[in-house]
Write a structure and sequence with these properties.
Blueprint lengths: L1 H6 L3 H10 L6 H6 L6 E3 H15 L6 E3 H4 L3 H10 L6 E3 H15 L6 E3 H9 L2 H10 L1
Antiparallel strand pairs: 1-4, 2-3
The chain binds calcium ion (3 copies).
One calcium ion binds next to strand 2.
């Protein structure tokens, strides 16, 4: 279970996969494809993301604050995009809305499933993360 949470499409993991190169299916894809049927549905994505939300919400007040993401570079960078109404907190609705829009970006043919092909395509566009993380080291 822990590895599923850790495997959530965070920038660092994408970076590692991109460096590793030729692996056809990345770990984040396998972590998100919970029923192992070879594609990721929106429900699977949101299930894993909701687990991530609970982990990030350390004080369990049902919102994520900047303090709670302070330990994660990738989530800190994403925080202000997630906080849609700019009240300084990310609630579950904002978090889920972000999940839906990310899903739509990856699901190129818009059929409600992310296939391994679409995942690889997305991964290939994510090389920017590699640069970001190299700099931060
Ligand atoms: Ca909180
Ligand atoms: Ca907010
Ligand atoms: Ca698709």
């Amino acid at each position: 279970m822990k590895s599923i949470i850790l495997g959530l499409g965070c920038g660092l993991l994408l970076a590692v996969s991109a460096i590793a190169g030729e692996q056809p299916l990345s770990n984040w894809f396998k972590a998100l494809d919970q029923n192992g049927n070879g594609d990721i549905s929106l429900v699977e994505l949101q299930t894993v993301r909701n687990q991530r939300f609970s982990v990030l919400d350390a004080n369990r007040d049902n919102v994520i604050s900047t303090e709670e993401v302070a330990g994660s570079v990738s989530w800190s960078q994403r925080f202000f995009r997630l906080d849609h109404n700019s009240d300084g907190y990310v609630n579950l609705a904002e978090f889920e809305a972000n999940g839906r829009s990310r899903f739509a970006i990856i699901d190129i043919d818009d059929n409600g499933k992310i296939t391994s092909h679409e995942a690889i395509n997305f991964q290939n566009k994510s090389h920017i993360y590699v640069t970001t993380h190299k700099v931060s080291r």
